[in-house]
Amino acid sequence: MDTGTFTGFELTLREPGIAWFRFNSPERLNGMTTGIKRDLIEAVTQAQMDNAVRVLVFTGTGRAFCAGDDLKAYRGADLGGQPLVPDIPPGHDSAIGTYAGLRTISQQLNTVVRGIDKLTIAAVNGIAIQTGFSLALSCDFRIAAAGAKLGSATLRFGLLPDEGGQYLLVQHLGLARAMDFLMRKRIVSAEEALDLGLVHEVVDGAGLDDAAMALATELAEGPQVSMRLLKRSLYNAAELTWDQALDEIAAKTAVSDHHPDAREGVAAFRDKRTPKFNAWLE
């Protein structure tokens, strides 16, 4: 996986196998552009295929995690960094262009983040609106700084949560609460988000990176094959019938039961010691 400074973010690899994405345009509240999204899609795709990566963390700098799309930068501002992929027109110049831009880039970013087998964490350091909010909801875990604000609020501009925000909120809140959240254009505090189940934990802002790193390390040291299979099975279970879910996890268990991590887990239990998983990665 390529590391360095790319369009709109810095990417480093920390031990033990944690890909750390940090949005680095605080003066723009880390607003998204076509270029940033395309580089993120490429970087997440590389992380999926790289055995050195076990967990992905996304966070921001300054007052925002990501405050949505930066429409000014869509018109050609220089964001610095080395692009991971060649530039393309941003689209949205016509009705069909908007459809293509959403399906190919904006929605694809959340699809890739949600679809990666490896576990993902959003460390929400500040404002997470629209694009930033849906990206955070696409991650498997969310830790928020105490001063963070989260919401979609697209109706404030007469717009729609077009990157999958409506689906993600129904998944997290249920239909009735998602209706209230979106139609009333709610932007909530970190504590309110915790009460709603939109984030898993709220921490002091100064301790956010440490909290995210601690969770990422815990996840990275777990049995990676079983965890990746279980992640996919959990997402599938939200949309399958009972019988389909049973069959689906039985097929995955046929893999995990015969993996070296399972033998190590049983041996560690027998020997009353802490298991050392993931020898296959080393």
Would you give an account of this structure?
The protein is of the alpha/beta class and 282 residues long. Helices cover 44% and strands 16% of the residues. The protein has helices spanning 34-49, 95-115, 131-138, 165-173, 175-183, 190-196, 208-220, 224-237, 242-256, 260-271, and strands at 4-6, 9-14, 18-23, 55-59, 64-66, 119-124, 127-129, 141-145, 149-151, 187-189, 201-203. The mean pLDDT is 95.
SS elements, strand count: 11
Number of helices: 10
Average pLDDT figure: 95
CATH topology of the largest domain: 2-enoyl-CoA Hydratase, Chain A, domain 1
Order of helices and strands: EEEHEEHEEHEEHHEHEHHHH
In CATH, the homologous superfamily of the largest domain goes by the name 2-enoyl-CoA Hydratase, Chain A, domain 1
CATH architectural grouping of the largest domain? Alpha-Beta Complex
What is the helix fraction of residues, given as a range? 40-55%
**CATH class identity of the largest domain:** Alpha Beta
- Biggest sheet, open or closed, and with what strands and sense? 7 strands, mixed
Instruction: Tally the structural domains.
Output: 2
- Our estimate of the beta-strand percent is 15-25%
Strand order of the largest sheet: 1-2-3-4-6-8-11
First-residue to last-residue Cα separation: 17 Å
SSE-based structural type: alpha/beta
Using only C-alpha atoms, the radius of gyration works out to 19 Å
Overall morphology:
globular
